[in-house]
Amino acid sequence: MLILIMFMNFFFFMFHEPILINMLLIFQSIMISLMFYKICYLNWYLYILMLTFLGGILMLFLYMTTLCNNQIIFNNLNMKKWVIFLIMYLIIYMYEYMYMYSNFNINTMNSIMFIFNYEMKNMMLLMFIYLLIILFVFKNMLNLSSNTLRALN
């Protein structure tokens, strides 16, 4: 799984279209969340991490679509094959992963208390700081232009 995540990082240099980069970011965040779940066996971090990344990715997507013109996405046939291979691998891996852990039960109270455990305080603090920095960045972007991100014609 770690090899797949590292392999997906090399696609960032190949893509130039904002839609493909956002799709790659979504797949990357799904894979990182699943890898984190395999390490800690916590659903709460999976949900928090996915919501944080997807919210940021959607904001980035909205911002990039206002700046970029419409472009042809797949003009290279070789790139189509790699993207189809990546999507098929993710679908097969997620199906196998869901089938393997479908009977797995976690005591809900223990998993909630584990979020506020002393060992996990650095992760929670890092997530809070990350959200705060992103909030300040978008606030400063809006203050510089003193209007919305999308330009009105």
From TrEMBL:
Keyword annotations of the record: Membrane, Mitochondrion, Transmembrane, Transmembrane helix
Keyword Mitochondrion attributed: yes
Transmembrane region(s): 20-37, 44-62, 82-102, 123-142
Protein name: NADH dehydrogenase subunit 6
